[in-house]
Structures are given as C-alpha cells and as structure tokens.
Amino acid sequence: MSRHRSALAAVLAVAAVAAGAAHAAAPEPAAYRPHVVVATLDTGTNPFHPAWRRSQHGHPSTFIRGYPTSAKAARLSFKADQEASVAASEAALEVFATSRHPVWIPGTNIVGTWAHASDQLPIFDANDTDAPTHSHGASASSQIAGRGLGMAEDAYVVIMDRTSDGGVHPYEANADGLRWAADQPWIDIIHTNIQNPVPLAQPSTPLYPGYADAVAYALSKGKLVVSAGGNFYAEATETSPHAGPPGVLVAGANDNCGWTTFSNPDPHVVMDGADTVAASPTSFETTSFGGTSSASPRISGYVAELLLRLRRHYRYAGGVEGGALLRLARSQRRPATGPLADGQLTAAELHEVVRKTADPRSHRSTYDGKTGFDCVPEPAAGPAYYPKVGYGEVSEHTIGAAFAVATGNRPMPARPDEDRFYEQSEALRSLFWG
How many Å is the Cα radius of gyration of the chain? Predict the structure, then answer.
C-alpha cells in the first residue's frame, strides 16, 4: 500500500452519514455538444462526494472536443458512505500518482485532474501535508459545479492540486498548473484561490515570481481567469493574487444583507461569501465555508453557467478557438449589436458583460449563506459602493440580463461611475505587475 493511499485511508476513515448517490438524469447521447470546462486551482477536492456524481457516456474525448484520448480513468467506487468508498477504491487511487494528466473520474463531472509532480497525495484536499486534512479545495471546488452547491451543475470540472512536497514551493506549482491549464484547448475557465502579494513599496515585484507571468499566459490563450480578491481588509493591489495582470475577473465577497468587512476593496463583482454551504472534505456531508475563497468559485460557476447557456443557444460545441470562447458559424445570423456582432465572444467581452450586468444592491439568492445583521448596509446608489462590491452582485437574478446583453437583445448597461473606478484599478494593476 503506497504512502499516499495509506494516509488517505487513515484520515478519511471517519464516521460519515450515509448519503444517497443521487445521479442526474442521463445526458443526451454521446457526441460533441455544447459544454463548458472549468479548471480550479486550489488544494484538491473530495472526489467521493455525492455532489460530483453524474451519469456519463464513455470517455470525455467522445463529448469534449479536443480532449486527449490517452487520458486514463480513476474508477472509484461509490458506496453508502465515505469510509466504505475509500476502502473499495484503494487500487483505483494509484492512477492519480502513476498516470499523466489529465485523469478523469467515471460517474462524475470531474473530467480531469492535475497535480504537481512532487505532490505525494495528488488531487486529495491537503495543505502541504501528507494527509487530506484541510477543507479549502474540497469546499471551494464544490461551489463551482457541485450538485446543489454551485450554479454550474452541468459544467465539467478539472481539479488542480497546488500542494507539493520535496522542496517545491506551492507558488512554483501554481505557475506550472496555470500554464498547463492554459495549454489545454478544451479548458475554458480557470479559477484560482491563490494569494500572491505584491509589496506596495516594490511595484512589479511579487513575492512569488513566475505566477503573474503564468496568469498573463493563460489570458493570452483566451481563457477567462477568475480569482479570489483576498480577505485582508486591505487594498487589493497589495494582497490579491490577481490585482496583477489586467483582464482577470477579481471576485469579492458580500453578505445577503450588505457588505462584508473582511473582503478586500477593489473587486469587480461579488457573491455571498459568509457561511455558505459547501461539500465536506472528509465525508458525504456538507459544511460551512466562507470568505472570498467561497465567493470566487461561486462566481466562476456563474460565469460557466452563463457561457454554457450562450453555447447552447448558438449550438456551439467547441472550446476556446482562435482566442474566442464562442464562434458563430458563417450560416448563423449575428446579433446586430453586442459582443457577438462580430461573430465571436472573447473572455474580455464576457468579463465586461458579467461586470456591467451585476446589481449594485445586495440581494438574496439561492446560494446565500447565513442570514444576519452583522454586515454594513451599502448606499442605495452612487459610486460609493464600488470599493467594496465593484459593479455589484451576480446571482441567478442577474444572469438573465447578462444573457440578453451577450446575445444583443438588450443594450450594454451604462455604468460610467464604475467604469472610471475600473479603468483606474486596471491601470494600477498594470503598474504593480508590469
């Protein structure tokens, strides 16, 4: 029994509440069809959790254009609880450590995994240790496309594990992972919860060189990158990982009754990040999760759901092509106005649609966490709200407007106050990150 498998079994052998293996209805027959793939770079996940389980039709290469046919499967066994599932999956777990990326998991919407070569416990939620004892990655990833936990339940996910051993700094692993995801044409959106501070006294000198360049590389490949804004109560240029290259969608956290005090200023959009519900890293149960680490995967799920609706509407079955997230066929009628008037939708254009259709007023949504009054009520209108919520909150209540704008059925909202803040913010990011 390998070290990583024995460590996994020891930690995950916990008393768990039996959970039904709820499966989705079978999707349409295997063929290239509209889809969205989100890669999430964090500390791994809990691949046994019922929130991931879906019916599948064969190898991902049969329904995701460009997916490598050589990818191996980790055929995990899903039993009545976590402990039994781990015990029945011991042989299958070896695939994560012995196969090249991506590795996919049949019976789930996890179509790929990536881990640094130095990682001794690939993809399982860990925090620079030999055992999956940290809840961060499992909880965050579930809020992108976990059933009942994220807005993009029909999206596919790639779990990227930044934890590493053998003297490799996690931020070196981060950069390697970002570049790998950027080079996969079948990955559309990259979400990251990694912090990479830039000292205010040393512009263009991030503490972890190489990471910002990797982010810029991902953007150059046409990916939409979403990052947590940080929970440091400080100006985001100092502490946020992607107060770096302009073009990243910076995700902040609010509460369903107003602002949160901890979320860094200068986000682009927000979602509730206070005591939200997420998958447990060590059982089939759910757990409480918060911070911009919660808001950012949920915003990634929002973007993925919007892109999926657009691809389905235009019957687009590809991935990122020629720097665009969606391309209309020559025979398709183009909207007279809007980002698709030229026949293609880029990440920058989708970024703008998401921002400008956000609601500056906090509002209740399906995925809110706690309900309380220990938050700061925001002004009813005006530019005073931008430093805390950017253009505003996105949710199931705003996605219809975003879809209408993207398809040219509604004009792009005029947001001049927020636009001025945004332009200044992007200029500052360029100054600090070079």
Answer: 20
**Torsion 271-309-36-75 (CA) sign:** positive
Nearest to 352 by CA among 362, 364, 343, 340: 340
Going 418 to 421 to 423 to 428, the CA torsion angle's sign is negative
User: What tens digit of pLDDT does each residue of 313-332 get?
Assistant: 999 999 999 999 999 999 99
pTM (2 d.p.): 0.89
Distances (CA, A) of 226 to 40, 307, 392: 9, 14, 16
Q: Which residues contact 12 (CB under 8 A, 6 or more apart)?
A: 48, 82, 83, 86, 132, 282
Residues 6+ apart with CB under 8 A from 281: 45, 46, 125, 132, 134, 135, 137, 138, 139, 287
- DSSP letter assigned to residue 183: T
Over residues 247-283, the pLDDT tens digits come to 899 999 988 777 888 888 889 999 999 889 999 988 9
- C-alpha to C-alpha distance for 410 and 403, rounded to whole angstroms: 9
CA 104 – CA 253 distance, rounded (Å): 31
Q: Which of 243, 287, 297 is nearest to 265 (CA)?
A: 243
